[in-house]
Amino acid sequence: xxxxxxxxxxxxxKIVAGSGLLTSTAAATITGNAAALQTPTAGTLLHxxxxxxxxxxxxxxxxxxxxxxxxxxxxxxxxxxxxxxLQAGDNIVTFGGIGYGATAYGGDRVKFLAVAxxxxxxxxxxxxxxxxxxxxxxxxxxxxxxxxxxxxLTGAGGIKxxxxxxxxxYSTGAGGTVTQLTxxxxxxxxxxxxxxxxxxxxxxxxxxxTFTVTNSAVAATDTIILxxxxxxxxxxxxxxxxxxxxxxxxxxTTGGTTAEAPVxxxxxxKAVTA
Length: 274
Hints:
By secondary structure, the chain is mainly beta. The chain contains no helices and 23 strands.
């Protein structure tokens, strides 16, 4: 044990030489506590603790535009002498949280994981992120949120917003616009999950007209939401068919006959049947 200039101490484990390698027989311990720290979890190489009631902080400084404060993790299969490629599902980074129960410390009850999404090569190294939590009244940890390698966000529970004005929805880049040509029954193509369709300019009619929106973002199980954005006439807007890659819109007025090119807003709500 080496006493520092501060109030803490650094306990250096016994180091033994063997086959040209230095092997630690116990975790290196940095402690500011007068009492011995609790036994570390198996596999611990560095054990840090502060005085009772004081935060245990690890600080990394960086100075200058290139002097980033950086903590880097790296992972490989096989051995240190002969590493091999990561495989799909392998953890690259893990941050875990362990707490004391009634009589002892348990396992990780909250985790942040960075995971390989594919078998790695030098040119293909897909990754995803998972956040794991433990439900109240349980000790079973499970994945709550996943950020996929395609930047998609998947939640095991509900995703809610408490913001008064922002809510949950699509942002810039998810939408588009298209204008219908020739007639109110002419199909249009717009491959986005939201957008605006400007109908062909014509007099309003109570006779239903149906056109197809070709859209590669649409699955057969999706729900399409329509709203009238502009136009003097009041329009009835119906989604009368949904298929993989398209949906049909049927439109007619409540009685107005003004000649115009109204605009319809749409949004695709992704849905499944299982």
